[in-house]
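Handoff note, outgoing to incoming analyst
You'll be picking up this chain. Sequence as last confirmed:
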Amino acid sequence: MSDIQPLCTTCQQERQQFLTQGDKDSPGCAALWRRAFTKDEAAWHCVQTIFEPWVKGRCRAALQQAPKIAGLSSEDLPDVVQDVWHNIWRYTVNNRAEALGLVATDDISRVIGLLKTTIKNRVLELCRKPRAYLDPLPDDDGQSNDDGGTGKGKSPEIDPPGVEWLDQLALLKKHIKTTQEYIIAELIFLQQLKPQDVFDLHPKEFASVAEVNQVRQTLTRRLRSDPARQKPGDSASLQFRLDDNEVRMDLFELCPFDEGILLDYVNGHVSIEIQIAIERSPACVQAAAALQADLVAWRPALRQMFCRDSEWLVAYQEQRLTGNDRLIAHTHVKQCPDCQAELQMLAAVDAREASLVRRIYELLFQPATLAPVPVRGEGSYRTVERTPQIELLVRTTRTTGKQRNWLLMGRLRYADDQPFAQVEAIIVQDAEDEDAPEFSTTVDEHGAFTVKGLDAGRYRIHILTATEEIILHDFRIGDRY
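Most recent structure output, in case you need it:
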């Protein structure tokens, strides 16, 4: 390793200079990566030693923002980091010429981009896979596929899903047959929209909201009553069955609400009166719980049917999709809460990129009217000492449902009303509790963004671009302000 050690030392110094001065040229690191890409084990070991803290930091950021339903936590960090390095190695083996092209100059930003993309792909694969069926990555055969850079690199293979997942997918495909049923499965079962929203989006497919409700109820009953999914003693009906340990009730008491109403309840779309009525009835509570369990069991298969693969979502988040592909992706993501949550997770990998150089150019927002910060934060804010100026238009609204909190909506634009969309991430932090989890999102092509689930309080809004971090320091939300 004697001839590698000087490159290792130089690369470490260059990384430190990047953090303190922002120097993008890293001839030592570029040379080290070139050696690693040619299967130099000493160089590869050195690369991992130098860049592992950086990789670990981005993996940790992603896991912290992973959707709760995915079941990922900080305990998965060592495995995710190992998988990322494993996938980088596989990419190098199969695409050596293409990998070397990433370090054709002294600028290693393209290698950093490869690392970030690999992190996003792996964490997203784990998010979308039922936790019971996670298997280790397959071993490599060591065969190179160096095609001179003319071929496309193959992505890491996703392990085959578990049998139960395949059973659920087969169940859904067996019963979802018509265009109406596909719409119901995607928009209500998966995306949790209201029947009225479904009718508004597809007025040509449904004659009325009543027809939406009828198709929804028929499909739900058909799926839940399939004999293939029933176990001995199970029932897909809404009847309340007594257990020995429960308080005796009228054996003939049934839940008065049908599957449609219970589905609205599970998705948070019923009135407060119906919510109270359901929660006062043990029969309805059990029926709703059973229905919710079915929806959770169907979700991976529904995503397999309606959501594109992880690489597609990563490409959308990194703005590598163009034209009609990006329009299709934007339309889907706008309606899919699962993909929205995953986008926040992917943005967290980029958001942690902020360096000391970016913070040197940190700018401030002030109310555009020079008035005090408005109640609940509604208003207009402009950057100070920045040309051209950026204006942030924000509005908050209180959401209703089981858990009442606040929804923050904003739009970034220039002074001439043109959208400002060159944003890597928007981070909302609790200004009163440093340990509270932060919220991360990004903007669409119109410069618009949305952050859900905020409690009343004081916040800081960070807008991260490639060179700046623009902060609205004292943003207040809630009735008590």
